[in-house]
Amino acid sequence: MATMLVQPPFPASHVIPLRTSRLVPPKHSRTKTTRFGDSPSGSTSIYTIRVAEQSSGLVGNDTLVYTKAELYQTLEGINRGIFGAPSAKKSEIEDLVKLLESQNPTPDPTLNLEKLAGCWKLVYSTITILGSKRTKLGLRDFISLGDFFQTIDIPKSKAVNIIKFNVRGFKLLNGQLTIEASFKIASESRVDISYDNSTITPDQLMNVFRTNYDLLLSIFNPEGWLEITYVDDTMRIGRDDKGNIFILERSEKNSISP
């Protein structure tokens, strides 16, 4: 996920285009609340999506705004893609990602490191946990996945990835896998990432994963390189050396504690 390698105007209020036209500004205002993803506590992340009139106060590049909005719509209901998505849905996401990448407002992200710093939340990845892997890790009924966070510390050249878990068989035990990694600039858009260490807390959760800990790390180990293909104030997109895509959004979360 390192591949997964303040307070922005997005995503608290995503501007959504009408499905009938990606680039034509909507004429009427309405508010729609949708659900996206599961949290360890059982609550659900809520995205308040507004279809609002175009105004001079919005981002100047209308096409970019509407493309991001349509991408958020397309991501609804697939739980970050971690347990797979229909091929048609994946293709649609890929097309929107490519469109955003072609309009990247920060073409040299490693020369603008302030754009990368801080906490990010994963909203989509092509990394999947399917079949026997999902069964071995207990991610069908026994354990559920919560949010994925990544905190980038520019001065230390460090990235901390947090994967939240909830174990229903242990009185709703909440815990997390923490993976620390180092990065160094490889080009104007690429960073090389080295795995440093990982921990699972609390101990009860480590006991649950102990037998399959290597499998867990093989899925989320950030080792390799990451090409940062899009970044603005609220969204970051990257592609890694294994062919995976990662879409993250700015998070208000500042703490990495369980």
UniProtKB/TrEMBL annotation:
Pfam family, one: PAP_fibrillin
Predominant place of localization: plastid
Subcellular location per the Swiss-Prot or TrEMBL entry: Plastid
Ranges where the Plastid lipid-associated protein/fibrillin conserved domain occurs: 68-248
Family annotation (InterPro entries): PAP (IPR039633), PAP/fibrillin_dom (IPR006843)
Annotated keywords: Plastid, Transit peptide
Protein's UniProt name: Plastid lipid-associated protein/fibrillin conserved domain-containing protein
